[in-house]
Amino acid sequence: MVICASPQRRQSTGVTQGGQSKGKSAVAKARRNTSASAKTVQPPKKNVEPTQEELAAVTIQRATRGLLARRERVRRQKEKQDYEDLMDRLEKEAFVALVRREQEEAEWKRKKEEDERKGKKEEQLLRTRLLEAAFDGEAEEVLAILKEVSDRDTKRGLGLDEAGKRQRLLNQLCMINITDANGNTAVSEAAGGGQPEVITLLVERGADINTRGAFGRTPIYRAAFGGHVGAVQTLLQLGADPRTHADDGSTPEQVASEEAVVATLQNWDLSATDSMLTKMKAEEQRRAEEEKKQNEAETERGKQCKRANQKWPVFSLSLKGEVEQLQKEHERCQRELQKAFVELNKRITEHDTCVRKGMEEQVKVTLQVVHEAEDVLAKAQIAAHEAAGQLSLAKLTLREQSGGDAVLDRGGVRCPVRDLEEVLIKDVGGKIKQDGRWPLLVDTYGQAATFLRYRDTNYLDALHPGDMQPDKLRLALLGAIRFGKPLVINMMEVDLFESVQNQLDQVNPGYLSLVRSTDGPQYARTEFMLDRIEKFSLVLVTKQRHPPDALLTAFYPIHVMLPEPKK
């Protein structure tokens, strides 16, 4: 029996066969793509062992790095040790300098006390001379003594301005009104000796005509007791009051030893005395008003300084005048010292030139000249040292009275030598940068100068003419800017601020204008990097204990302190 498939069945079978055909082609295509992918993506290779040459190179590199690291460590350790040795040496030198300074200060104090004793002795001698001259009527001797007082004020540096004149007048009045052990003044002595000329001389210069001496006796009392008619008349005309009483109640008229004296006292118009006493009282009030105004002016200036956060020193005019006079003497000695330094350097240069050229005859002459210049320098150093010591003591007294500090009052700081690296070189905290002024090292004992010599700085000696030549200074400044290092100028113990300032003023503005074609490729325009330029600084060093105010104001002062002794 034949069974036929329906049309639907046949149609279904045909579709199935076509689908199988298409599926086979898709599988084949997928196989071809898989085969292509297999050809593109390779399996990972196995780790390849390094060759002997590569292992040797790594070993060499490792050993080289280790060697360089060890060398760097040794270098840094040596640098640290050298720095520690330098600091130890500076500390030892500082202690020696400290002992020397203490000895010098003790010597200065001893000398000052001796001068004070000598001054008191001279003062007592002047008083004795004045009293004796007044009693004996030696007017020229009295004038000579008053001139000695004025000359002494000038020697102490008392000026001729308003304040100086007032102090001079006060000193004259103090001398004129001095008393002996019994309280008798020069006018009283002149009255007791019957010396009208000396009485007039003293009263015209401010002597108190009615002062009381021994037993309450006035000058007119003593003149009347001695029977000196001329002295009594002069005293009455100058304002002496005949109504005064001694301690025992007696009056000049009662103790008069001459009838002429009694008659003079009885016939004297007391209204004239009252008039003169009124004038003298008015003069005293005028002087008191002037003194009051002066004190008020001083007080007002002190308030202004206080509002400006400044300290107002209170000291006597004589002490201020002494400081001014000592300052002038110090400046004069500084000029002489600078001149001696320059002259010695010139003579040394001449001698070195003769030695280099083999000029034997001239060498003997130049060597002798060098020795002579050294002697002149030694004398100038001694004089400058003495002047600086006297000025230091005077300024110390002023500071003790005012409670001020020259460095701290001008925004400066104190710094031990061991901290100079952080304070000066690294500027930890940025105080120097914030202040805006170049640093000034007040290096009394030379520690900072030695420290900076061993640092990477351009170091110049302001006392050496060769270092301050314009071209040498230009190259030092240019190199400090180019390589970002400090330019250090050491002025030693001489006041060379104006000289250094004049030398630096010759430098043209703009650092690139300093470059010359002969300076070499290292100073080409492209070699100046901003990060290095910003590290440049100008540092001045001075050994003066009390630098000039202009220097302390223009620069940022750093007082290099002595290290504390190790216990």
TrEMBL record:
It comes from the Eukaryota. ANK repeats lie at residues 182-214, 215-247. Keywords: ANK repeat, Coiled coil, Repeat. Signal peptide: none annotated. Residues 69-123 form a coiled coil. PROSITE patterns: ANK_REP_REGION, ANK_REPEAT, IQ. GO terms for cellular component: BRCA1-A complex; BRCA1-BARD1 complex. GO terms for biological process: protein K6-linked ubiquitination. Residues 281-303 have a biased composition (Basic and acidic residues). One of its GO terms (molecular function) is ubiquitin-protein transferase activity. Residues 1-53, 281-305 are annotated as: Disordered. This is IQ motif and ankyrin repeat domain-containing protein 1-like.
